Predict the 3D structure of the following.
Amino acid sequence: MGTLFQFISRSIMQGTPLLYGATGEIITEKSGNLNLGIPGIMYVGAISGVIGAFFYQTNTASVNPFLAVLIPLLASIIGSLIVTLIYCFLTITLRANQNVTGLALTTFGVGFGNFFGGSLIKVVKSDVPYLAMTEVATAFKKTLPFAQNMNAFGKMFFCYGFMVYLAIILAVVASIVLNKTRVGLQLRAVGENPATADAAGINVNAYKYTATIIGGVIAGLGGLYYVMDYSNGIWSNNGFGDRGWLAIAIVIFAIWKPNLAIIGSYVFGALYILFTYISVPMTYIPLIQMLPYVVTILVLVIVSARKKKEHQPPASLGLSYFREDR
């Protein structure tokens, strides 16, 4: 049972950055924008938080837990906001191809993170190829006061830093807003048919900008969580792997519903680390690591075969809107 609880706990921690990315992308796609730059935004959010943490930790004698959380958090939000605004300007205002812009943003974000991460490693003259923000990370990993006094089952659900619970809260709030509010209805209308929404008096560009920016900032927080909580404040270049792409895959798995993204993220988190808990020959490990993508393909095939309207992506997903084309 101890091994099972450990596996579930690690799956939750592994799935949390995926949940941030998936929630952000779902909000973005509901407006009709397809942002394939999510992996890059997560990198920028992570390195921006690391830069903020680095300057705070190296310029203070005693780390204040509140500032240790606030400064990297604000830095991550600002960094994610800037690169998302660039994407919005190119795809919404200039109507550039969303696929190409998103892929370019991912390439830029990864390069941006690796460049500044490598630069900070050189600044501290580290003998190892990583940067340690362990004092700041301690504030991010601080658990609920009563968690340590609970049994193994209780610790499995309550022994996490605040960003794990924040990811769930954001997904739940996004689900409620999209499905239960007038704003959510209008946003979905923009994603389905922007021309009709525009004719009804809805400001299409404003909704697209707002949804894409909010989605990008949430995705950036996933990068911050990965470095400051999951990796214990350790930054290493190219340390993210393919988690940003997995987050986009979860959007399909969750059929564009933030509440289902919670389950999907933790399932993918479990599949991502499954090979470390089962005994199989080394030659089969790559096959096990492919499981998240195989599951995504199966879900996509099933959803496409059923052709239920509520399980399909927004009708205008990936298409730029030009008012004069109506």
User: Anything to note?
Assistant: The longest strand covers residues 131-132. The two ends are 61 Å apart (CA to CA).
